[in-house]
């Protein structure tokens, strides 16, 4: 049974007071080396307005909760969560300074730094453990295979139609997860052909219609497909943790406004506590803001989320960064000469 609105507000107040107390004593995360000025837009009272960019995905749910429950104000900051309809448009906003922080992935963070728009990784937004932020490979209900091994055998049998393969988009989390899942299944690289399909909805639709042998997809489309009888060939929830989304800040912004970065992190933590205490209270918000299909909205799992700070230290990305860098280099996607400092969350481009 859901808590009443009054009870939720009481919990918000208690958690916010704790977060503000922690914020008052936390160490500044500022680092040296920025050659660009931060550009947070000043509010009417002179305080910086932190602009946080995101795609419309469940990875950012705690900050939507923070907006709804006025947690930014409780943390004594002004912040705005801005939703973009494509990853390129989000990257462009980071590069131009139109947003100060953003929810993105490790691959995009590397490419931003390589392009001269350095960012730091501040915390993991989803994927701290394997069952958060599911990705997997989905096939049509009538596909003549039910596992990746069976799909590879079908691809090698000579019976597969021309153009047969798994729909992916280059240098993305779904492609990375697909490659790692094939590796875990004992398959040689290329055992299952891939087909470049950048649009997730198109990738899903082509799989439904038989235009693709399967598709590498995120959780919401996996759930939708499974609900309609499609086959899940594999996902990343059972073995090693191989997919994460991350919160990044422009280095220039983090250097000039370290307190605001930490304040956003504390608002995130309070929101995570609210979600943990009563996830069903925010199901409607998740469905609306992340565009969860009506057919699965009532049953779609509300994820657990990691903390952004522990003992006032930002929780930088885990050891998955180095494997992603190695994969990017192997695939020819970049990352050559790039190193990562887990203590600062920053990349060095040599």
Keywords, separated by commas or semicolons:
alpha/beta, 350 residues, globular, six-stranded mixed beta sheet, 19% strand, disordered N terminus, 2 domains, D-Maltodextrin-Binding Protein, domain 2, five-stranded mixed beta sheet, 15 strands
Account of the 3D structure:
There is one protein chain. The protein has 2 domains: 5-128 and 244-349, Periplasmic binding protein-like II (D-Maltodextrin-Binding Protein, domain 2, 3-Layer(aba) Sandwich), CATH 3.40.190.10; 135-235, Periplasmic binding protein-like II (D-Maltodextrin-Binding Protein, domain 2, 3-Layer(aba) Sandwich), CATH 3.40.190.10. The protein contains 13 helices and 15 strands. Mean pLDDT is 87; it is low at 1-37. The strands form 4 sheets. Strands 1, 2, 3, 4, 5 and 11 form a 6-stranded mixed sheet that branches. It has a 5-stranded mixed sheet with strand order 8-7-9-6-10, sandwiched between helices. Strands 12-13 form a two-stranded antiparallel ribbon. The protein is of the alpha/beta class and 350 residues long. Helix content is 39%, strand content 19%. The radius of gyration is 21 Å and the shape is globular. It has helices at residues 5-24, 61-68, 71-74, 87-96, 106-114, 148-156, 173-184, 200-209, 219-227, 251-256, 258-277, 283-289, 321-331; strands at 41-42, 48-54, 78-83, 101-105, 119-126, 135-139, 166-168, 194-196, 214-218, 231-235, 245-250, 309-310, 313-314, 338-341, 346-349. The termini are far apart. Helix 1 packs antiparallel against helix 11 and helix 2 packs across helix 11.
């Amino acid at each position: 049974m859901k808590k009443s609105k009054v009870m939720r507000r009481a919990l918000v107040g208690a958690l916010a007071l704790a977060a503000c107390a922690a914020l008052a004593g936390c160490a500044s995360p500022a680092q040296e080396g920025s050659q660009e000025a931060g550009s947070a837009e000043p509010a009417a009272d002179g305080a910086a307005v932190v602009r946080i960019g995101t795609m419309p995905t469940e990875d950012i749910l705690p900050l939507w909760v923070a907006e709804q429950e006025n947690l930014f104000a409780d943390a004594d900051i002004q912040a705005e969560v801005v939703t973009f309809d494509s990853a390129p448009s989000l990257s462009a906003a980071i590069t131009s300074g139109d947003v100060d922080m953003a929810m993105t992935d490790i691959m995009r963070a590397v490419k931003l730094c390589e392009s001269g728009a350095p960012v730091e990784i501040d915390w993991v937004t989803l994927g701290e453990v394997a069952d958060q932020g599911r990705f997997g490979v989905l096939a049509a209900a009538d596909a003549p295979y039910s596992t990746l091994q069976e799909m590879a055998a079908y691809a090698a049998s000579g019976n597969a139609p021309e153009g047969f393969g798994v729909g992916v988009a280059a240098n993305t989390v779904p492609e990375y997860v697909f490659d790692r899942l094939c590796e875990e299944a004992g398959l040689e690289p290329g055992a299952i052909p891939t087909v470049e399909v950048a649009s997730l909805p198109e990738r899903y639709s082509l799989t439904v219609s038989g235009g693709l042998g399967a598709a590498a997809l995120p959780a919401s489309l996996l759930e939708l497909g499974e609900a309609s009888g499609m086959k899940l060939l594999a996902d990343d929830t059972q073995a090693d943790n191989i997919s994460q989304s991350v919160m990044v800040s422009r280095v220039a912004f983090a250097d000039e406004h370290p307190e605001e970065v930490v304040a956003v992190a504390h608002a995130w933590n309070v929101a995570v506590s609210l979600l943990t205490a009563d996830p069903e209270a925010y199901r409607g918000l998740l469905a609306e803001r992340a565009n969860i299909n009506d057919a699965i909205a009532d049953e779609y799992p509300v994820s657990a989320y990691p903390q952004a700070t522990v003992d006032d230290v930002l929780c930088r990305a885990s050891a998955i960064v180095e494997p992603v860098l190695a994969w990017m280099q192997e695939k020819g996607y970049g990352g050559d000469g790039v190193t990562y400092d887990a203590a600062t969350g920053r990349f060095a481009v040599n």
